[in-house]
Amino acid sequence: MRNIVGEVELDDLLANREAIAKRIRDIIEGMATKWGIDVASVELKDIVLPVDMKRTIAKQAEAEREKRATIINSEGEVIASQNLAKAARTMAETPGALHLRTLNSINDIASDQSNTVVFVTPIEVLRAVEGLNKFLERKSK
């Protein structure tokens, strides 16, 4: 029995108990008939695993769960990146879409009083406003 059970992997042993029990029964029956004994059945009911084997199986199961989680996470990242690329193409093709998105983001940020919104303005724009201000001051004099 030990030889037959030792030849198969644990997964196969658990999944194919009947087939393995039949192989053991055939071997036992072949030897027992010489003595006039008839073997009615052989059943594998309880398989006792050594502690080291249980730890190994637990590690393998944990690694398999981590592998599946990584695959699921990476598939989600792929879908998210495809959606972001699609959104970027749509914004690039639609005039004013980026401005509307910016205004929407500012509106979302402004709804919380604890946030501070900082507008980054190019120095050229500030100089143009300053020049316009000087022009208007000279004109008003």
Structure description:
This protein is mostly helical and 141 residues long. It has a domain at 1-48. Helices cover 73% and strands 0% of the residues. The protein has helices at 2-7, 10-15, 17-32, 51-93, 97-110, 123-140. It is rod-shaped.
Pattern of helices and strands: HHHHHH
User: Helical element count?
Assistant: 6
Helix content: over 70%
Distance between the termini: 111 Å
The protein's oligomeric status is: single chain
**Which regions have little confidence, pLDDT < 50, spanning 5+ residues?**
none
Shape: rod-shaped
Query: What percentage of the residues does DSSP assign to strands (E)?
Result: under 5%
Mean pLDDT: 85
Classification by helices and strands: mainly alpha
The radius of gyration computed from the alpha-carbon positions, rounded to a whole number of angstroms, is 38 Å
**Tell me about the biggest sheet?**
none
Number of strands: 0
GO cellular component, one term: plasma membrane
Family: Belongs to the band 7/mec-2 family.
Domain Band: 1-77
Protein name: Band 7 domain-containing protein
Task: List the keywords.
single chain, 6 helices, 73% helix, 141 residues, mainly alpha, rod-shaped
Set down the secondary structure blueprint.
Elements (H helix, E strand, L loop, with lengths): L1 H6 L2 H6 L1 H16 L18 H43 L3 H14 L12 H18 L1
Question: TL;DR of this structure?
Answer:
The protein has 141 residues and is an all-alpha fold. The chain has helices spanning 2-7, 10-15, 17-32, 51-93, 97-110, 123-140.
